Amino acid sequence: MGITSAIVLFMVIWFLTFLIVIPIRIQTQGEAGEVVPGTHDGSPEHHHLKRKAWITTGVAFVLWAIIAGVIVSGLVTVRDIDMFERMGPGAAESAG
């Protein structure tokens, strides 16, 4: 895996994790009882985005290390998920 692929993989995992973490423990204006005029009751009162970004970074790094390790080790390859055999025979299969 090249450096660009590793960075792209980390960013995809980071953003997916962030979208999962954002709604956790959010307090809305409706729940707080202080709705600012012109906003929706579901608007966040306290969102704690900085803390959630740090949590996301830690979780994403662990997930990235596991996924990158599987990719680099070769345990799972693209040919393993080719259910319809559209890629044709592999290099080892065609040489024999």
Task: Give an account of the 3D structure.
- By secondary structure, this protein is mainly alpha-helical.
- The protein has one domain.
- 55% of the residues lie in helices and 5% in strands.
Task: Please render the helix and strand layout as text.
Elements: H1 3-21, E1 27-28, H2 29-32, E2 44-46, H3 49-73, H4 91-95
Antiparallel strand pairs: 1-2
Order of helices and strands: HEHEHH
Unreliable stretches covering 5 or more consecutive residues: none
What is the count of structural domains?
Answer: 1
**Main sheet, how many strands, which sense, barrel?**
2 strands, antiparallel
* Strand adjacency order, main sheet: 1-2
The tally of helices reads: 4
Number of strands: 2
Q: Helix share of residues?
A: 55-70%
Structural class: mainly alpha
The general outline is elongated
Mean pLDDT: 86
How far is the N terminus from the C terminus?
A: 27 Å
Quote the beta fraction: 5-15%
- Based on CA atoms alone, the radius of gyration comes out at 22 Å
Quick structural gist:
The chain is mostly helical and 96 residues long. It is 55% helix and 5% strand.
